[in-house]
Amino acid sequence: MAGVAFEDVRKSFGTFVALQSFDLKVEDGEFMSLLGPSGCGKTTALRMLAGLEQPTAGTIRIGDRVVNGVPPAKRDIAMVFQSYALYPHMTVAQNIAYPLRKRGVPRAERPPKVKRAAELLQLEELLGRKPRQLSGGQQQRVALGRALVREPQVFLLDEPLSNLDAKLRAHMRAELIELHQRIGGTMVYVTHDQLEAMTMSTRIAVMNGGILQQVATPSEIYHRPKNLFVAGFIGTPAMTLIEGDMVTEGGETQVRAGGLRLRLADGHCARMPSDGTGISLGVRPEDITIGAGDQNGKIRVVEPTGHESIVMIECEDAMLTARIAGDIRLGFGEAVSFDLRADRVHVFDRGTGERLNADREDVGAVRVSAVAGGVE
C-alpha cells in the first residue's frame, strides 16, 4: 500500500477553474473521503489521481513516485465507479478475474486470487452467476472484488453506493468499513453523502467551489467546523445558523442573534471581535432542550422518526431545529420554553466565515438560559 499527496494542484477547463491550490496528503492505509456538493471538484481530484485527467499545475504523488503524466494502467490503482460496469456475458468469477487476465497473470494463478476476493466480499456462492442474476448490492460487491483482486497500492471509489436504495446503502457502508479494517488498504472515496463520509472515514476532506475547506476526523469536523460552509454542510439535521452581533456589556461578552441573547464565558472565543461585529451563531440540534429554560418560542414543525423527533421552533426572527429523544406531543403553533447549551454554541465571523471558538473542547462556560432581553 502507499499514501497519496496532492501538492498545490490546479485544474482548469478553459476559463473555468475546477480545482485550485489543492493540497492534501492521504496517509498509507487511510480511508479518506472527499466530501462536498456537486461541482465542488471532488470527482475531478479523483480522476486526476486515477490519471483520467491531467492537472493544469501542481504535483500528484502515489507513494514516493510523481505520477503526473503516468498512464492509468501504470499507476497501480484500482477504481470503482458509480456504475458497476460489469461485463454482462461473463460470470461473477470471470468479471473478478478480468483485471488479472488483462495484466497477463498466468491462468493457474488466477483462481486462488478470485477465491480470496470472493471470500472477503461473501460472494463464494455467486461465482457462477451472471450480473443480471444479482441484486444491486451483489453487483456492487463484484465491482469491489474486481478492484480487490488487483491488490493495488490505492483504491479509488467514485460514489459507489449512490445507485443503491437506502437499506442497501446502509448495508454496503458496513461492508466497506469491515473491508477496510480487514485489508488495511489506502482508500480515497468520493461522495456527496455526509453520512457515508462520517461513518466510514478515517478523515474527511470537505470541499466547495474547487477549494479545500477543512481536512480532519469526522468528530473534529462535526464538533469544530472550520467555517460557516462546513458547519452548515455537516450534520443531519443541519446546524442552525442565526445572524447576530457580538457586544460587551458590564465587562461580559454577549451574543445577540434573532430572539436570543447569550453570555459567553471567558475564553469561549479564541479571537474576540469588536463590539457590533456581525457574527453567525451556530447551534447543533442536540444542544437545545425543550421544556426547560426561560426562552419562549412556538412549534412550527414536528418530525417523529420513532427513536427521536426533529422539532423546529420559531423564536422571534430565528428558526431553530432541535433533536429530542423519543416522541414529543406538541402541535403546530404551540408555545414552548427551551434552553441552549451556551458552552457548546459556535460563533463565526459573518464576513469571513471563520470560526471564532477556542480550539479546546471545554472552555469552562457557565450554564446560561437564553432569555429575551436579558441573561440569566
Key words describing this protein structure:
376 residues, alpha+beta, Rossmann fold, OB fold (Dihydrolipoamide Acetyltransferase, E2P), 6-stranded mixed sheet, 5-stranded antiparallel sheet, 36% strand, globular
Quick summary:
The protein is α+β, with helices and mostly antiparallel strands and 376 residues long. It is built from eight helices and 21 strands. The strands form five sheets. It has a six-stranded mixed sheet, sandwiched between helices. Strands 13-12-11-14-19 form a five-stranded antiparallel sheet. It has a four-stranded antiparallel sheet with strand order 2-1-4-5, covered by helices on one side.
Could you tell me the mean pLDDT? 88
**By helix and strand content, what is the structural category?**
alpha+beta
Alpha carbon gyration radius = 25 Å
**What characteristic shape results from the CA principal axes?**
globular
Compute the number of helices: 8
Strand order of the largest sheet: 6-7-8-3-9-10
Structural overview:
This protein has 376 residues and is α+β, with helices and mostly antiparallel strands. It folds into 2 domains: 224 residues, 3-Layer(aba) Sandwich (Rossmann fold), CATH 3.40.50; 143 residues, OB fold (Dihydrolipoamide Acetyltransferase, E2P), CATH 2.40.50.140. It is 22% helix and 36% strand. The protein has 8 helices and 21 strands. Helix 2 crosses helix 3, helix 2 runs parallel beside helix 4 and helix 3 crosses helix 4. The longest helix is centred in the middle third of the chain and has 18 residues.
Secondary-structure topology with pairs:
Layout: E1 4-13, E2 16-26, E3 31-35, H1 42-50, E4 57-62, E5 65-66, E6 77-80, H2 92-102, H3 110-120, H4 136-148, E7 154-158, H5 166-183, E8 186-191, H6 194-200, E9 203-208, E10 211-216, H7 218-223, H8 228-233, E11 240-249, E12 252-257, E13 260-264, E14 277-283, E15 288-304, E16 308-315, E17 318-325, E18 335-340, E19 346-349, E20 370-371, E21 374-375
Parallel strand pairs: 3-8, 3-9, 6-7, 7-8
Antiparallel strand pairs: 1-2, 1-4, 4-5, 9-10, 11-12, 11-14, 12-13, 14-19, 15-16, 15-18, 16-17, 20-21
Helix pairs in contact: 2-3, 2-4, 3-4
